[in-house]
Amino acid sequence: MKLGSFFSVFFGCMILIGCSGQSTEPAPISENKKQSLNRGISQASTNVGSVSIHNYYLPPKYSYPRTNQVTHVMIHFISNAVQKPQNPYNVEDVYRIFLTYGVSANYMIGRNGEIYRLVSEDRVAFHAGKGMLPGFPEYQNKMNEYSIGIEMLAIGTRDEMLSIMPEKTYGLISPANIGYTDAQYYSLNRLLNEIIKRHPTIQRNRKHIVGHNEYAPDRKKNPGKLFDWSRINISQPYTVKPGDTLWNISKKFGVSIQAIIKYNNLNPNTYLKVGQKLIIPQ
Hints:
The protein has nine helices and eleven strands. The protein has helices at residues 3-17, 31-43, 91-101, 158-161, 167-170, 182-198, 212-215, 246-253, 257-264; strands spanning 45-48, 51-55, 63-65, 72-78, 107-109, 115-117, 123-125, 147-153, 209-211, 235-239, 277-281.
């Protein structure tokens, strides 16, 4: 299949599953395949830095060799809630979604914080689809090539999910399965630490660690309103405006004056200048 035709099919599949479920039942996995996949998880755990990762690789056709520097991480959510609202996080079911729709991500983080490697970082995963990221026009429809995709096993708000499932189905989901867990945030932070060590071109801020909805706002809502960006230890660029002081900037972003001073190596006895660039720790 020609590359252009492949991506047309891929983007269509991403629209169907919405990074959170699917509209049709995926093909079943044979018993031999199930045993093989289960062995793949249990026997292929590795430690990368301080992070324990289970290798659960997707077949090579779900990615291709990376040739560009990685500058971004994109966060998504995914589940099997459409088909199994009362058991949406079975890892094998979710793996089958990738197989069925020809999509992929580099990592997936389970509800208890377990991390699965689906595609190696040196390969391009098919997670972003069509879109454009503000500030990076050259990445239009090419975000896969510059980013590492992380899927979180999670479900969004009712409004966010109604585009892919009936309200009745959403009502069957346990409240405990909606949103994100503490263990997931903990593992995501540790994983981000290691990714950034390997790819120093990724800056730990909101310009470089983004949600799918920021790249494709017309068709994607994940990671959604329930994802707490303040919990992944990222920083945010800020340009000083007329009338700004360290006090009102600290109140605006909910961070201490001392943290802003330390992060930016500021002299607390000097005034801020209009146009001055600051990094706000989160």
